[in-house]
Specification:
single chain; 11 strands; 39% strand; binds zinc ion
Length: 132
């Protein structure tokens, strides 16, 4: 794993040379980047890297759209998005995007709860690995 030598600590508002700690939690090995000054965790890497997933809706009027962030109603500059803008999913903090770029990358742990939440709203879903 290639890690940068120095990182920016938001807490200290400066770039620091970090200490990397290998921690094992829930049977998974993680590398924690800890600020040497304030000891806050700046970043965490999974080892091996965590797989990320896209969730697709496969039923309803917006079938085969990706679950992404809710659209705030602001202007869309991308012509692609202007043509087929995201549709917000009622009662959730999600929006449905035709474009892969709008899709949220969910961790393996998150996928289950997202699917459950959508199922409760009456949606069929499909999960695909991001970046394959
Ligand atoms: Zn710090």
């Amino acid at each position: 794993m290639n890690l940068p030598k120095a990182v920016h600590c938001d807490n200290c508002a400066k770039t620091v040379e970090y200490r990397a700690d290998q921690v094992v939690r829930d049977g998974k090995s993680k590398v924690e980047i800890v600020c040497p000054d304030c000891h806050s965790v700046i970043a965490m890497f999974c080892d091996p890297p965590a797989k990320l997933f896209h969730v697709l809706i496969t039923s309803g009027p917006h079938a085969y759209r990706y679950v992404g962030i809710a659209h705030n109603g602001g202007p869309l500059r991308n012509p692609d998005l202007q043509e087929t803008p995201p549709v917000n999913l009622p009662d959730t903090s999600y929006g449905l995007w035709l474009q892969k770029g709008g899709a949220i990358e969910f961790s393996e742990d998150e996928v289950g709860s997202v699917e459950l939440q959508l199922k409760e709203l009456g949606y069929e879903t499909e999960v695909s690995e991001a970046w394959t």
